[in-house]
Amino acid sequence: MNKAVFAAGALLAGFLTSPVAQAQTPGTWGNWYIGTVVLPGSVEKKWGGYVEVQARSNRLLNQYFYNELKGGVSYDLDKNFTTLLGFGRYDTFDEPGPVNTEKRLWQQLVLNQFLDRLKIEHRYRVEQRWLTYRAEDSTAFRQRLRYRLNAFLPLNNKTVTDRTVFLSVYDEIFLNPKGPVLERNRVYAGLGYQLDRHLSAQLGWLRQDNYSQPTLKQGQLVPLSTSVKNNVVLTLQYRLSHRGTTPRPETLPSQLD
Question: How many other CB atoms sit within 10 Å of the CB of residue 139?
């Protein structure tokens, strides 16, 4: 068996059989819907960008509570290194109205590795976040660091090209300089289809663990706690192309979230 295929299969199996992949109690499942338009860089033109809209629900197919509108400008340092400056607006709701609104700016570096059939993406991101809260009528500024390791395995072709079925798995950690240092962890496993050089879709499972700050209440230390949410994620991505230029030999169908 091809070593790359075996490695990716073992990675996916590890995710799905580990404790983080086990089913949770009823009510911990939600939906994410992600729609993205991307203009990747080409051989001749290094500049690119993207826009994205996203909606989330607290339960399967209902209790919509969150949306995002964001975009960014990218620049290819070379065929395997891409930088990006991003910005967006993030709104959380409940029945009375907005709970909080966040405006975010971030800088990121993406490194791609093409290991025969197995494709690896390393994404490093630094975020600046401005939040406005309804209940306290207050604002806050926070910073955050993120790292995502994403693996892709095309199943019926050697590369992710037209009419390709592929597996995608990733793990992403969120670090808060002010603590708790590990603020969040996301684990994802999904099945995707690259219809042609423009359109791709993914359907997957995502588990998100949020870690709360330890606090001191009435003289007693309340330790760090974890909240868990599983989600069914549907992603549609449309890829534009520069006119009159040579496209990259292979572009990974990464989620831009």
Answer: 11
CATH code of domain 3-19+32-239: 2.40.160
Q: Which amino acid is at 69?
A: L
The alpha carbon of 101 is separated from its chain's Cα centroid by a whole number of angstroms, namely: 20
**Segment 163-221, tens digit of pLDDT:** 999 999 999 999 998 877 899 999 999 999 999 999 999 999 999 999 876 655 555 54
pTM: 0.84
Establish whether the linkage from the previous residue to 180 is cis, with ω within 30° of 0.
yes
> What sign for the dihedral angle of Cα 211, 212, 213, 216?
negative
- Which residue shows structure tokens 């629900």? 57
